[in-house]
Predict the structure.
Amino acid sequence: TRAVWLTTNLKLDWPPNTTDEEYQKKLLRDMFRNLKEKNFNTVYFQVRSNGTVMYKSDIEPFSPYITGTVGKIPSYDPLQYAIDLGREFNLEVHAWINMIRCFTGSDERIAKHPKHLRSAHSNWVVKYSENGSTSYWLNPGIDQVQNYLADLMIELTSKYDVDGIHLDFFRYPGSDFSDDKFFRSSASKTSKDDWRRNNLTSILRKFKENANPVNPYLKVGVTPIGIRKNLKGATGWEGYSSVYQDSETWLKEELVDYLTPQIYWGFDKNPHFDILAKDWVDKSYNKNIVLGLAAYKEDVIPQLNKMIDFSRKVGAAGVSFFRYEHIDNKLSYYNDVAFPPNMPWKILDNSEPAENLICEFEEISPKEVMLSWDNNHALKIPNQIRFYVLYDNTDVKTIARIISLDKRQAKLKFSNPSKLAFNYNIGKIDRLWNEVNFSNPVLVKVPFLEKLKEESANNIHPILIKQSEEEFLLSIHSFEKQKVIVGILTKENTYNEIEFDFNLGENIIKLSENIKFIKSIKINFVNDKREELINLI
């Protein structure tokens, strides 16, 4: 998982400070495109904060961040638009909702709206003061509050085909939360701490029992605070004892599919990132642990690549960066495409057998071929299949291209090939990122190189192949498998040698220097002591 939190609360990442809805949509599209180009695959898109939402709800008022007015519905649906962008850019979209905290800040317009919790259900809300700031939190010790939050989750996931639902502020604000009378009246036989932990867990249980999501493969995730329980070298604010997050029970009872703990510290001092990361993974109960990273902290930023490497070393399911603004203008942390890990405890209904993917190719120009396949199975079950993927198996299996389900062809351009032939096949990826089935392997011969090879079969001397005004390939015939040294002398009389392992027959290499600056090329064959010289002046 390569995730990022895209924050809408207080307009931190999005929307921009304007009510121009077309501009809002353009900016969100640019963000998704940017994440795709950086090889991310998951977005935690915030759709509930301060007791308002960014989707069509019968329960809570619409956020004022889009139209400028609390409760006013815009001309577009931000969550649905994000889902559509996710499909377009092959990004998984999780609806990120702030759960227990329902109001903070100074915008009283929000709290005074008749559908806001502070107005509609003031008896459910507890005022909480900390470090000079005031916030308002729902009281999870009230059954109606638990039902309300479960219903909110059910409404969202039954209306929208999101890939996941991502719960934040799923905690108490602290041990001094004012709920004594509710505990006393609860007739609980447990301690107050255990009662509080069970209150939060009950919300997840009620959601699991009653949910009927549009996407039956919905992923349920929670982002707990970074310290589960204090450890040697990693002490501080505890999830279990300070804010009553019983994350082990959530995992053991399969109430969640993943956790994204907010481990917002580095390797160098207490609490140590590596100690916490390993603890979360070791107690994953075979569910996914995505490590939350503080991309906004100056002392953490230089360690982010090391954190990614460490997450792989300890077997985490991936990482998530907080937040979008802090990776927006950074170079990508990923050089390749990767899919989130599948979730084997979630089983797709593949009752309809997958049809074979039959793939073939034809030459459409000297430097282009068209791959074609005939398969309608994916379109018959669009809620199961995510996209096609084109694999290049020439050397090592790599993802060459991701292809949408409505496509049946892929054009391959060989303007600057490194080989005479490439080995491809088409596969299907389902909603849980499983590889469903593959086509037959297709050996695609680069047309113009293949033709050149045939024409020069009897020519033992090197041939220059013009790619463009500045780029040339070199076709060299070898009588056996051997090492060959290619030396390039430039017009400035600098000389550089490169060693190659050649196969029997024609071998194609790309010149490392611009042809305009080369005086001569010398080719030495190590085994048969042959030397070829190409003078370019």
Summary: The mean pLDDT is 91. The first strand starts at residue 2 and ends at 6. The two ends are 54 Å apart (CA to CA).
